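call fold target=Zinc finger protein 33B
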Amino acid sequence: MLETYRTLRAIDSYWNDHINEENSQTSRRNGRHLQTEDRTHTGEKSYESVQCNEVLSSHNHPQIYKGMLTEAFVPYTGVQMHRRTHTGDKPCDCNTLGKACACHSHLQSHKRTHTTEKPYECNQCGKAFSCHSYLQIHKRSHTGEKPYKCNQCVKAFSSPSYLQNHKRTHTGEKPYECNQCGKAFSCPSNFQNHKRTHTREKPYECNQCGKAFTRHGHLQSHERTHTGEKPYECNQCGKAFSWNYCLQIHKRTHTGEKPYECNQCGKAFTRHHHLQRHERTHTGEKPFECNQCGKTFACHRDLQRHERTHTGEKPYECDQCGKAFSWKSCLRIHKKTHTGAKPFECSQCGKAFACHSHLQSHKRTHTGEKLYSGNHCGKAFSENTNLQKHKKTLHWKDSLCM
């Protein structure tokens, strides 16, 4: 108690000295400002956080930090701003939604989400942003600059938040947990996207056709279906893509890289969501449910395809004959009837097919493998279509009695 009293007296004494001295410091403030400006060029960071050892360079006005008596006194609001990342203090409130922010500049940026104001424009491509820091990060997409490096691997990032998300791939930390299904995520954006699988919210709408999406990136990719823009080209085969992510996945068809491996059976995949879909074959999880008939699916794409059986929607149309399809893969297969292309060849008999799945079915005629079996009589078939025919011809009476 005595020690606390002495500490408080020392802080109050410092505060009184600071007030009396402030007038005499007016002439030196410009000099201090120049010193701060110098640090932005030299990278010098003079103020260290005693909680996480992060070193800071910025400050605005001398103020007293009276919050934690056990910590060293640091008279700069730049450090106080950083301390709020530890304390969670958010004193600035939005009067529209009540959202709280740690500092006034963050509040101003947040308010622009209500007004849609985007005052910061890229002078190279014209893209505009509501926040100056977003513009700075965006500019690195032109320069290729990635100043934030992981100290555990060689990977580098254009944004500190991207680095923080990446670091969790090393630690395994998943701090963002869904309160509906318990699924946890390492990245806040993935968490927000996941929550929309429960709410069915699709906030990103195409202004040309009205189609809505759960993710902004998906909207951007979709918009290129209207413009035909494919800015990302493979330097090995020349194939072009609307989205850089698709190009990176395509490149793995050349390298054979499959970075996503199942920790139960060892099977590897080129895409992370293919691994997630595969993992559900082990767990039996089917989180995607049709709100019309209640049927559940392991994959969101399969749910979307199924929903078209209710709506009759056929969004994929052949540009040669006008025939429309519910599935994009069906359109691709159909187009080969015009070109005659059969790129998938059996290594045993040389028979060629327009579709990879047809080749897989054909291979079973060589191996004798029969994956599809009926639950009434146990008879097995190499193709699902043959099983369905069998059910309709022999077990239709059983279905009437159920």
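return ok
The domain at 314-396 is CATH 3.30.160.60 (Double Stranded RNA Binding Domain). Residues 2-22 form the longest helix (21 residues).
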